[in-house]
Amino acid sequence: MAKKIRYVKFLDRLLGLNIDGFLISLIYFIILGIISYFFDGTNLINFLIYYFPLHFFYITAFLYFKKATPTMMFYHQHLVSEKTMDRATIFQLIIRYLVAYLSFFTCGLGYLWGLIDKKKRTWHEIASGTIMIYPWPNAPEDLTFARKIVSKAHRIPVSSLKSRDIPVNPIQKL
């Protein structure tokens, strides 16, 4: 039986892109402020010299080690290799990062492509062979998800739960 794949929708991606953009900008401006304090101010060249490597490292490191950026982790989304459905390689992530700028600088056409693609892929995902998915097909109905909620609510280890303890709807009042 083939595993059902839930692709991440356009609006969910847009929200994540904006939140991650805010986080990296916040980190960058803190670093830039520290550099400006100790040195003679900054200009556009210094901005570009420090920003792009920091942004590249932030995105690539999170996607390689965690399969998600902090925002994607919060919304339970993963970036995986389309062929293996496992962690994307460093090469795929570098291609994805570079083509993402092309997608953005073409007035966002590469991102809007996700609206018409049946797998909801953008240009940089097509070029790199990656896809953004939810890690389980029926997120709220998944038993392990429900076990985690019940164990947190009752402050007991997940391993001690039996299947009869799992509510049908994990969001229901316990």
List keywords for this structure.
single chain, 174 residues, mainly alpha, three-stranded antiparallel β-sheet, 3 strands, disordered C terminus
Q: Any overview of this molecule?
A:
By secondary structure, the chain is mainly alpha-helical. It has one domain. Helix content is 55%, strand content 6%. The protein has seven helices and three strands, in the order βαααβαααβα. The chain has a three-stranded antiparallel beta sheet with strand order 1-3-2. Helix 2 (44-66) packs across helix 4. The longest helix is centred in the N-terminal third of the chain and has 29 residues, at 10-38. The two termini are 33 Å apart. Residues 163-174 have low confidence and may be disordered.
What is the gist of this entry?
The protein has 174 residues and is mainly alpha-helical. The protein is built from 7 helices and 3 strands.
Secondary structure: elements and pairs:
Elements: E1 6-7, H1 10-38, H2 44-66, H3 70-74, E2 78-81, H4 90-105, H5 109-112, H6 123-128, E3 130-134, H7 143-154
Helix pairs in contact: 2-4
Portion of residues in beta strands equals 5-15%
In terms of per-residue confidence, which ranges show pLDDT below 50 for 5 or more consecutive residues? 163-174
Strands in their spatial order, largest beta sheet: 1-3-2
Mean pLDDT value: 78
Oligomeric state of the chains in view: single chain
Distance between the termini: 33 Å
Spatial shape: globular
Radius of gyration computed on alpha carbons: 20 Å
Number of domains: 1
